[in-house]
Amino acid sequence: MSVQVSVYQSLLEWCSERNVILVAVSKTKPVSDIMALYELGHRDFGENYVQELVQKQEELPKDIRWHFIGHLQSNKVKYIAPFVHMIHGIDSIKLLQEVNKQATKVGRIIDCLLQMHIAQEETKFGLDMDELSNLLVQLNNFPFVRVRGLMGMASFTENQVQVKQEFTQLKKYFDQANASLVSYKLDTLSMGMSGDYSLAVEQGSTLVRIGSLLFGAR
Ligand SMILES: *Cc1c(COP(=O)(O)O)cnc(C)c1O
Fold first, then answer.
1. What is the CA radius of gyration of the chain?
2. Which of 26, 47, 169, 174 lies at a 20 to 30 A Cα distance from 130?
3. How far is the centre of ligand 1, averaged over its atoms, from the C-alpha of 154 (Å)?
């Protein structure tokens, strides 16, 4: 059994005390691992490959809230639009357009987060502040998308000072975005993984995405 039940219970308590949503990242893990947490009452799970997510969704209970946390290609949105609870990685207007189109088709309003580039590595996806502002003023064009907030991934480094700075930067983007919005406010800031979640919550995260700490190494 690879699910760390006692770790889960203390992490859940830690998150609840701070009003933080715990998303259990189950990518590459079998459905039996997901069911082990499901039976403890857990409902928020994160996946980052479309095909794997679709397959698991078919097999597992329908009240699971699936978070898509990976890099989403436009041509794959249609596969997850009928059921996905939240898409974390929106990083272009084109992708937002496609989510709106597929959401319209299935008659759902889909919650989305805009992914910001905060890490030093060039390979990590995401928007900068100008792109974010540009996107936020166009949201009226996408009535079937509800932008709930921002998501980001810190650099993969042991340097805690740097990671902290990156999370602080993301929180700044979040506050700036909220200051610019008149008719509604963003309420979700998705940052923090197994190695850096407490730092992320200190800096204002409202949702952490935890994989290896709960399910063991991948
Ligand atoms: C895999 C993944 C996680 C979880 O990572 P762990 O270090 O195993 O907790 C969180 N967020 C994203 C976007 C991921 O791809």
1. 17
2. 47
3. 11
